[in-house]
Amino acid sequence: MRTLENAARRWGFYRIAGCDEVGRGCLAGPVVAGVVILDPARHIPGLADSKTITALERERLYALITRKALAWAVAAAQPTEIDELNIHRASLEAMRRAVMSIAPLPDLILVDAFRIPDLLVAQQGVKQGDRKCAAIAAASIVAKVTRDREMLVHHANDPRYGFDHHKGYATAEHLAAVARFGYSALHRRSFKPQTSLFDTMD
């Protein structure tokens, strides 16, 4: 998975960041972006797309990434902002915030699928980047663990919706709770439940 990073180093880049987001397909909760600059001298085995590994493995890798990376950061766009901007623009804004919170800035950013607007930093969009690039995979794990932990806090504050189980995705359990209790302050008003969302959990 380090092929892209190794190639970029041959081009003269050193601080190479991977960036990804999670939570695009949820009915509730924020979209969270992660950015990670891996240390080429401190290999982390087992990095993979956060959707393909267990929660326990994500927690284990999160601890390794945050300890061994040269730098890392997370940022979020909350439901009200998602409703105001739309989910795509809110996701890009969360990624921009995450990148801008790292100092010094990366030399190059490898982004899962998209390019981030309003960044004066070299960047490259990588299709299926979380499966092809170690730094993007690491960013997806950091973002996923951060978001899941936040949803557990929301569940503790309001257990009616079962956020501890589905983390805000449109599962049958979640839709039944919405039908019973209506939307909470954490729900995105611009999202309408669709059956097609059931299998988009990232």
Report on this structure.
The protein has 202 residues and is α/β, with parallel strands linked by helices. It has a single domain, classed as Nucleotidyltransferase, domain 5, CATH 3.30.420.10. It has eight helices and five strands. The chain has a five-stranded mixed β-sheet. Strand 1 and strand 2 form a beta hairpin. Helix 2 crosses helix 6. The radius of gyration is 17 Å and the shape is globular.
Structural features:
202 residues, alpha/beta, Nucleotidyltransferase, domain 5
Within CATH, the superfamily carries the name: Ribonuclease H-like superfamily/Ribonuclease H
Low-confidence stretches: 195-202
Assess the beta-strand content as a share of residues: 15-25%
Give the C-level CATH assignment.
Alpha Beta
Order of helices and strands: HEEHEHHEEHHHH
Work out the number of β strands: 5
Per CATH, which architecture?
2-Layer Sandwich
The residue fraction in helices comes out at 40-55%
What structural category characterises the helix and strand content? alpha/beta
- Compute the separation of the termini in Å: 19 Å
Shape field:
globular
Rg on CA atoms, Å: 17 Å
Biggest sheet details? 5 strands, mixed
Number of domains: 1
Overall pLDDT metric: 92
Question: Helical region count?
Answer: 8
Would you tell me which CATH topology applies? Nucleotidyltransferase, domain 5
Q: Walk across the major sheet and give the strand order.
A: 3-2-1-4-5
